[in-house]
Amino acid sequence: MRVLLIQPPESQSVIGFNKFGCPEPLALEILAASLDGHDVRILDMRIDPNLEGTMRDFSPAVVGVTGYTPNVPQMLGVCEEVKQLDSRVTTLVGGYHATLCPDDFGVPHVDVIVVGEGEETLPELVGALERGGDLDEIAGLAFRRDGQWVFTPPRQLLADLDESPLPARQLTDAYRENYFFQFWSSPTPVETARGCPHNCRFCSVWVFHQRRCRFKSPERVVNELKRVRSNTAYFVDDNFLQSLRRAEKICHLTKEAGLRLRYWMQARSDSIVRRPDVVERWAEIGLSTVLVGFEKFREKELDDLRKRSSVETNEEAARILRANGVDIWGAFIVDPSWERSDFDALIEYVRRLKVSFPQFSVLTPLPGTEFFRDKLGELTTRNYELFDFLHSVLPTKLPARQFYGEMARLYSSTTMSFSDLKERIRSGRIQVSGLRRIKNLLAEVSNPEAYLRGLEGGRTGK
């Protein structure tokens, strides 16, 4: 059966974190690999928007679309266009938002919603469609019957991640030179774990994964690393150091295999502090950057987010990374209730922490989370394009123009110096092409008008 999997286009009207990268669609590559025996293609509409041409040339029987909350309008738009081009096609949607908020896809041009992980559900679904079989027996689905939505029993999370197929990266080869993540060109995403055992108020990861963390074996991870075709691998796990013993074993096996790559990972500050020696060993084999969710610089605000960390731990983690020559990609959350003095304090803190690449997001109640339910009555918009972490969907204490002026000032006031950037280019930690992208990105996120244009575009749906 011919199956077309689609990464939808990004909104052209809203400035969002898509500006920071165009990553390889790993989730679609894994799903494609699960469809053994079927003719599968991936269309990345962020790069190639020619849906009509692809539909004409490939003539798929099934089209699946994925995305996060800000992508919902585009996901729906793709499904609608598919139906206009060929009404016989079965359209599917999946991903975080579709799982947590399936009602948002209850429209005539969406036929099936894949609820939860898809490696097992999708092959069963496509097989049933090919045979003309009943969908009732397939767990993890919502589908329309006689004008009503039918939900099948939940799909259990994949118990052994080593059973997840190796990504079908060959299906995105045509797009490879267009992929980037911040200052890395064509980096390779590698998944070694899923989920998180913590329950931060603002996060949807633990909700989707039922507050569980599942791991691939170190041997499986190194097998994937051996297949990396670029010089940079970035681990997409929410906390690569969740199991420090496993991270240590992966490091040992990677070194033993003689792999020469640069690595990027996400890690919690408390994991870093618990075993500084693990960070040191990874730095020895090529760890260049760690994304740390510092989030806040005041204890009470960390507690309010249920972060279960502390300012002291964050600062010690930053010290450990600096001591090992690892760049800090520090993530901070801006509260809509902030005044100018709060922005001043954050700028001072970021400078003191010597964060190499600061990232600032607006506290956003993501649909499907407890935080969203708590804040539902306060939302200023339900336009999902504006749930992009760079716009506030809650009332701001400052007037909008002033608030976004402060957001822009965060970036313009904490950008790495030109001499530091040159040093990183000389050492190979940043590519020249990456520097150009960062320059263009910073020009946008440091411009208050860019936020306001996006705000207006998002409101009007342009």
Detailed description of the structure:
- The chain has 462 residues and is an alpha/beta fold.
- It has 18 helices and 18 strands.
- The chain has helices at residues 26-34, 51-58, 72-85, 96-100, 121-131, 205-208, 218-226, 244-256, 269-274, 276-284, 299-304, 311-323, 340-353, 370-375, 400-414, 418-426, 432-445, 448-460; strands at residues 2-7, 21-22, 39-44, 62-66, 90-94, 112-114, 141-145, 148-151, 180-181, 184-185, 188-190, 193-195, 213-215, 232-235, 262-266, 287-295, 327-334, 359-362.
- Strands 3-1-4-5-6-7-8 form a seven-stranded mixed beta sheet, sandwiched between helices. Strands 11-14-15-16-17-18 form a six-stranded parallel beta sheet.
- Strand 4 (62-66), helix 3 (72-85) and strand 5 (90-94) form a beta-alpha-beta unit.
- Helix 7 packs across helix 8 (244-256), helix 13 (340-353) runs parallel beside helix 15 (400-414) and helix 15 (400-414) packs across helix 18 (448-460).
Short description:
The chain has 462 residues and is of the alpha/beta class. It contains 18 helices and 18 strands.
Which secondary-structure class do the elements indicate? alpha/beta
Q: Number of DSSP strands?
A: 18
Average residue pLDDT: 93
CATH top level assignment of the largest domain: Alpha Beta
